[in-house]
Structure formats: structure tokens, C-alpha cells
Amino acid sequence: MRARRTARAGQYAALLGYLLFLAFPLLWLLSTALKPPRELGSLHPTWIPRHPTLANVREAFAEQPLAHAALNSLLVALATAVVAVLIATPAAYALARRRTRLTRAATGWVVVSQAFPFVLVIIPLFLVLKNLRLIDSLAGLVLVYTVWALPFALWMLTGHVRSVPAELEEAAAVDGAGRLRTLVSVTAPLLAPGIAATALFAFVTAWNEFFFALVLLKSPGKQTLPVVLTHFIGAEGMADLGPLAAAAFLATLPSVAVFALVQRRITSGLLAGAVKS
Amino acid sequence: MTAVAEAPPARPGARGPARRQGAGPGAWFLVLPALVPVLVLSVGPLLYGILLAFTDAQSGRTTATRWIGALNFRDLLHDTLFWESFRIGLVWAAGVTVPQFLLALGLALLLDQDLRLRGFARALAIVPWAMPEVVVGIMWRLVYHPDVGVLNETLRDLGLGGGRDWLSGLATALPAVIVVGVWAGLPQTTVALLAGLQNVPRELHEAAAVDGAGAWRRFRAVTWPTLRPVALAITALNLIWNLNSFALVYVLTSGGPGGRTRLPMLFAYEEAFRYGQFGYAAAMGCVLVAVVAVLLAVFLAGRLRGGAET
Amino acid sequence: MRTRATALVVLLLLLAGCTAPDHRDGPVTLRFQSLAWQQESVTATKDLVKEWNTTHPDVKIEYVQGSWDSVHDQLLTAFEGGEAPDIIHDASDDLADFAHGGYLADLTALLPARLKAGIPRGTWDTATFDNRVYGVPFLQEPRVLIADSARLRAAKVRIPTPEHPWSWPEFREVTRALSGPGRYGVAWPLKEPVSATLNLSLSAGGHLFHRGADGKVTVRFTEADAVVPRTIHDQVTVDHSAPSATLGSGGSDTLPGLFGGRYAMVPLGFSYRQQVAQQAPEGFRWQVLPAPAGADGLTQGVSPQTLSVSADCPHKEEAARFLDFLLRPRNMVRLALGDWMLPTGTEALKDPALHTAEDGWATGTALAGRLRPAPAQSVRGYAEWKDNVATPAYQEYYSGAIGLTELRERLEKDGNLVLARYQR
After folding, report:
1. In chain C, which among 364-393 make CB contacts under 8 A with chain B?
2. Which segment of the chain is annotated as a signal peptide (chain C) (predicted)?
3. pLDDT top residue among A103 and A140
4. Residues of B in contact with C7 (CB under 8 A)
5. φ and ψ at C90, to 5 degrees?
6. Any chain B CB within 8 A of the CB of A128?
7. pLDDT, tens only, C143-161
8. ipTM over 0.90 threshold
């Protein structure tokens, strides 16, 4: 029992180490966001602001249309997550269950496509979207992000489908369930962790993406959060650090919140129950 | 269609009635919604980009573009700067991907345990991922700041000396950006592995524990075989993404000092967007794609073997 | 790009329906992408746009916020895709490639005589390529020394003025006198070592780029080109009057060290004063000094901010009229004050607000006449020479990894190879 307890303590210590390493910049952002300009220029910065202020937050919202940009980002990110999952799940299922030369080529292609410098793809992509009348539209951006998220979605989901035993589906088929029903009621629930992870991936990617949003959106009213964030950065890397930190801190929260909600799904352990029954 | 409806090639992985049932022409309907946008927005622009590599395309509308065959590739062969950056790129990609995987695996296993405040810890663990890249770059510049950086401050407090110029030192710049790379990519890998861990049958784990198998044995015998497809997929993608990423490094060092952090993608980006040499940059892209394809083939082979084992 | 376009047609026919031409009835709308960044200058620019819109119902200007950080990539993509803003705010060193690419309208015939006469000939040169004017240079900033007054007084050094500046050797002496354990006379933020070095080298008469009789440009690193680099190198590696740690820093990164007494002086762009004024701790006294002078006095290179019109803009004359309005002397002063920079217009420069001693305005304004186009910004291949050859070479030289001989060799030998490729 004692060994068990020390093992537990070790686990907590390791977890704490991880969290410190991963989350300290968020704390630093928060600390920076609460400091007045004079304190930001101090040679010996402190974790706890000496003269905490909310002026940076006020200034950030006054200078840039943050709330509106956040709404745009949220819309785009949610749409991307939904669309990506809807089209990737069936495709991944087919790719996983059927191993032909063709499906393997498709899988390979999808990944190789990620290796080509996107800066070279962006100009032809721009022209295609222009002809589809999708420049300066959030729908166009969703489309681009979906395609961008697909390789990850497909690869992850194929991996998950493959770890769902085909025997389960066979059993359902023997029970007389149609193929579609088998898919929806047997396979899909087992894929829930993978689907949740994929949706999260698509959401975060879309929420953070900068370059496509920069070049594809023209109207000030449509700009997304990362684009607006760069407006706090001036020439030669000069930055309006306080308001930038305030805005960046707030921009980080939605993704963390979404993950806090989704994480239960990712680890719902549905499979264990399913195998038993 | 007929090609798809044909009986699947006889391989150990394909068997059972459900398999054959899933092999009907219906498979196309499943793939189609993903295929169309990919063809239009990815394959099209990509093929176009590859064709560019065989032209002397430049930015601007004043000069006409000509086909020049493999001239770009010949030039590239003699471009020592590019190959040097290629070497740096490989060091970077391996230096980021390997620790990323190991650390993420450790974290995923921890987060999969029944620990207190698990949900809270999981949410915090994705912080680096939740931050826009520009912000990550600026944050870490502050961390490495020679005068007011948290890192030097901490080292000074610990009495380890201070005043190191992490990002502008010729020797420290690459390791410093690699740490940021690992940090930034850790959550994504962790989440993927965490999701993968849910496929591991609990019963087997418990049974193995009852049999007295140690943690390592249980991991090898029970966890890893199930995790393997997901682990390979995420590692392959990580490798590619890392080989392909430069935004972070661009914000941190702009490729300096003395070109020590000049990743190949940064090189291609500058070639295209700064010097306007689209054709030459495309040729660089093709070389990178070729390398990735080879690496991928190795991974795919591993994956198929893994599939055959289960 | 012509065959690119034809190659695309095939792709596009497959992908999309036809594009109907835009019918524009009623008032003309022009998109103006501004890079104004400081809050005051954003406000000033937006106010001016509003003023224009209320007085000119037939031409509506739409303000779009851009960012210095990403403007080049964004414009290049937009130009290639034919979707660029109509009126473009940029800097002259970024303009050359766009001008060569045919994306910008030649403003020579469009600009009114008043605007042309109001800006000195030499300043126009920064935005003139092949005898065509592709932008109106309207704001510029000299590099100055921002100094900790208390440190200067304590060391009893002579305070330089635009009339009696320090020479480069004197500057080196002064920084040595200002240094001590853990303290440095100067901190060089050289994240962009090439433009800083080249612009300051004009003071010593170093031009580095020389146009031969055949019209081709080559790099020649003369004794005059070595004055500034050697001073910096010796401060860092011989005298230790400048820290090596800031060689990779941006300007803002050095400010805490300045405020905290670690650095006595920092060479920065004139507009950094805004940050200094905003962030300096209570009681910190600072002043603006001219950069050291060489054989050519206080001359230094600048790349002014510019306003251009897209070649695709269907209403170039209206756009030019808006530029004329925006850059009237009174308005130019407002923009300059908002960005803490200097206006290029001679009339605007006379404004009393630019001649106060407060925040060092007078010192900077006194330097306005000594500003020249940054060397080589219009040389084809300059960007690649800078990134691939010069930046690493200067970085290694300043940190002491290589000597002057190797610096010269790399700048000339490797450099001329690059330039030759662009001038075939």
C-alpha cells in the first residue's frame, strides 16, 4: 500500500511539473495584462503586479473591435469543427475498413499535401476562392479551415476506427441491423473520443489561424481574433504589450473552456462498456 | 466504381462479413464529402504549386513566365545555403518530434489516471495550444529576454549565473527554439494520445494487473498495441508539421543568428514572399515533399505491420 | 505571371461560374489600408478619413486597419489575386518590389503640383523607381540616441547637439567612460543589423553599393563602410561598453535596461520616444541625442512611410485627390505627431509643435535635412543579399565570431554572386 501511495505522490508531482511548464505563460500573460505601462518597463518584473490595473483590458477593447472579432472567430471555429467532423468521420470509416491501393494513396496524399509549403498554395487557393466568390466571406474561411483540418481528422479517425473491433459490427449485422444503423448506433458511439478530439483540433486550429484569415478577409467587420491581435504589434516588433497581453489572455480562454467541456467526451471510456455487453 | 467494388485484396487485416459489407460501392458516398473540398481547395492548388517548380515564375506582372524544365532543381543542388538550412530543418524536426512524443505520452498516461482535479489539469494542459502563434512567439521572447526574461531571472535566483542571450547566441539559439517547438506542440499530441488511450480495453489492463504484471509490462503488452495506430499517425503528422513549420521560429529569431535557425520552410517562404521567386521556392517545396514522402513510406510500412499484428 | 494566369484559367473554368463585372453606381468607394499604429495616429487618420467623407459625398473612403507585421505578405497575395486595397500605406523599402512587379500606379501625372513641390527632391527619390513615382513619402524618422540624463551628467561627458555631434571615435570614448561593472555605455538592439548599419554608415560616407559604368550594381566594402561596424564591434568585444546580449533584440527589448540604469544610451528610431515617455518610471530623466557623425556629418539613411495607389484601382484620380487632402501640411503634422515621427513636407516641418524641446522633438527635427534614401533599397536582389549574406555576416562579426576581413569577403564575394543573379 505504501508503494502505491508513493507512486501516487510521484504522479501528482509529475503532473504538477507538466502543468507548470505548460501553463506558466498564461499566468505571465495575466500578470502582464494587469500591469500599468511603467511597470512593464521595469528591469525586475514581478509575478504579482505591484499596481494591478484593468486599464489594459479597457484599452484593448477600446482600441480594437475585440468582441466582434471574437464572435467571428467563434462562428468560424464552431462551423469548422462541425463540418470537419461531419465529412471526415464517414470518410475515415471507409478508409479504415477498406484497404485498397486507392485508399492508401488517398491517405498518403492527404498527408503529403501537408508537407508542401502553404505559402505556395495560398496564391492559387486565393484565385480559386475568388472565382467561387468566397473571398471576404466567413463561409470561405470555414471551407479552407475544414480542408486544412481534414488530414489530421482523417488520420486520427482512421486510427480510431481501426481500433474498434470489426467483430462488433459483425455482431450487429448478424442481429439484423442495417449498415447505416450499425454505423450510427454501434460504431459512432465507440468513436466518440476520437471524434471529440478531432472536433477540438478543428476548433482550435480555426480559432488560432492567422494567415488565411489575413489574406482572405478584407472587410474590417469580418476579421477574426488573431488578425485583430496583430494590430497591437507595430513596426520592428514594437508591441503595445499591456493591451496585447490582456487581449491574448482573453483569446486563450475560449479554447481552454471548450476543452474543459469536451475532455469528458474524449475520455468517456464508452468502449469498455461496449465490449462487455 | 468497379475497381472499388472488386473484392479486397487478400491480406490478413481484411476478413469477416462486416468487412466485405463495408466494401460496397457505398464506400464512395462516405468519402465523397471529404473528397470534393480536398480536390478543389487542396489538390488543385497543390498540383499548380508543383507545376510552378518547373517554371521561372516570379512575383509581379511585368515578366512573362517560361517553362524551364529542371533548371530550378539543378540550381537547388548547388545551393549550399539551402542544404545547410535543410540540415537545420532535420535537426529541428527530430529535436521537436521525439521529445514531443515522449513527453506527451507521459502526460497522456498521467491525465488518464484517476487523479484529483483531472478535468482542471486537462484543461490547463492545452494552454500552449490555445494560444495564437503570434502570442506564443511574443511570450517566449519575453521568457528568453536577456534583461527581464523569466529564465535568466530564475537562473540568477538559483545562483547559476545569468545574462545568457538565449535567442541571439550562436550556440543556444537552435536549442532555445526547439524547446518552444516542443512546448507548443505538446498539448495537441497529448490530446490525440489521450483519446487513443480510451480504446485500450480496461478489462485487459485489470486482468494483467491481477496477474502481477508491472506497470511497464502492462504498458508493453496491453496499452501500446492499441495505442500504436494513433501514436504512429500523430507522430507522422507531427514530423511533417514540424518540418513544415516556421511561423514560430520566424517570430522568435527570424532565422538568425547567423542563419542558425533558418528552417527550410522559412527559406522557401522568404524565397517566395520576400524575393518573389515563386518557381525556385516551389522547387524547394517539391524537395521537401519528396523527403516527407519517403519518411511517410517508412511510417506507413510500420503502420501496416502494426495493423497485421492486431 | 501571364502563363500563370492562362494555366489557371483551365483550373478556374472547372471550378467556378463566371464572374460578373461589378456595377458601381452612385458614389465611388475606395479602400484605404492604413498601418497607423500608435493610438493617437490611428485616431488622427480615422478623423481625417471622416472629415473627407463628410466633405466629399461622391468619393467614400473606407478605412481598413493593416499591420506592419504582416503587410508585405498580405499585399503580395492580394496583388497576385487582384484584390488589393486601393490606397496603400507602406514603407519605401518595401515598395521597390511591388513597383517592379507592376502592382502600383505611377503617380507622376496624378499628384497635384502643390504636393510635389512640398516634399524635397531627395525624399521623393526614396519612392521613385525607374523615374516613376510609386508612392508619396510622408513620414520618416532618423535614428537617434535615447540617453539616461543622470548617467550622462554623472560621467561629465560633453552633451552632443545637432550642431556639435559626437564623432564615431568620440562616441566610443564616451561609451567606455559610461561603462562599469554590470553597466554599459550603449546597448545596440540589432535584430535588423543590416539596415541599421547601412543607414548609419552614410554618416561616414559608406555607400557599400556602387553602380558601375554598365549600370550594374556591385558591393564594395571600403574603409568608409567599416567605420560604423568597427565601432560597434569594438564596443561589444574589445571595450565591453556594449552588451552582446542585445545584438539580437528589438528596440523595445532594450528599454527596461535603459530605465533600470543598465544601459546609458540606446540607438533607436525617433518614434520610440513614445514608448519611452509611456513606460519610463517616475523620475527617470531622458534626452534625445543625435547619432554620431562621420566624414559626411550627420547624414543617415531612412526608408520613409509611403502612401501608394494600386495599379488596379479604377479611380486613381479620386485616390490621388484623397492623398492630396490627407497630406496637406496641417494634416501631415497631425499624422506625424500621432506617430511621434517627422513629416516629410517642408511646410509641415515648420510647425512649432515639432520644435519644442519637450520629448526631444527639436533635436529630431534638426536632423530632418540630413536624411537620405536608405542605400540600396532599390537594388534588385537587395532583400536576398540582406537575408542570406549580410545579416548572418554582420551578426557574426558583431558577436566576435569573425573578423573584419572575413566580413568584407563575405559581403563582397557572396554578395556580388547574389546580386549578379538578379542583374543578368
Report:
1. 381, 383-384, 387-388, 391-393
2. 1-20
3. A140
4. 48, 51
5. -155, -165
6. yes
7. 999 999 999 999 999 999 9
8. no
